[in-house]
Fold this protein.
Amino acid sequence: MKSSVITFPGSNCDRDMDVALKKFGFRNKMVWHDDAELPKSDLVVLPGGFSYGDYLRCGSMASKSKIMQSVINFANSGGMVMGICNGFQILVETGLLSGVLLRNKYLEFICKNVFVKINDKKNKYFKNVDNEVLEFHIAHNEGNYFCTNDQLKEIEDNNQIAINYCDENGKIEDQFNPNGSIKNIAGIFNKEKNVLGMMPHPERMIDSSLSGEDGSLFFKNLINNLK
Amino acid sequence: MKISVIITLKKDVLDPQGKVIHQTLDGMGFDDVNEVRQGKYFEIDTKETDNDKAKAKVEEMCKKLLANLVIENYKIIDPK
């Protein structure tokens, strides 16, 4: 399986993602934001970081960079595109995913482990994951998911919510919402579910001695689903 | 020609920064403030000399980059 990770000026989780993808069997290529053509890929990842210093709005500048037209075309033709953290912010700015990520409710940069509940498994990202709840890591200042009522109705009707913040038993309540996101939303899909954006970092949970292994579960499963 | 643009958050979007500014003003003794909403201001100096054309261009910039219409409104101020 071939993957591509896009590096924008200010990306800082691109190499972690490269390590994670390779560890679980992807042949990964790093792609510079100013390139026009995407290499042949089964999965394209927009990594976390602070592209363009978060100027104007997080992800807004990166969403207009040269490579993004190829990424948008790839996504629109059914290609798998995953945005993590800043990558999620970039995806909403392109319009591939609906809504927007606002400043965290209590104005704090949040860096901690969280539990997320998988809301939908009828997609290539989470199909066959045995667990209902995964422990991932978040590190963001603008992760407060917001959308209009019409957009919320649409993503709920189409079952586009991917994961919600919850406790270790999968209970989705306000007190387990770290940043004020509507409905505890931590990640969403597009309508066709080939595009996923999420604030948590699975690539930070792939080593039993450093972190948990729930990211390993995610990547192992993902590559099997793509085969 | 210089054109100014003001971007404001839509009414029902939470503005935690505005809220903190409000609280701080309150603490400084400006206790008659009802609400503070924070926005953005741009000055765009364009080569375009035709008023209407310049405004139309800036409007396109607002829609495509300067504002995110899910959460923000934009207002173009007439060039002088």
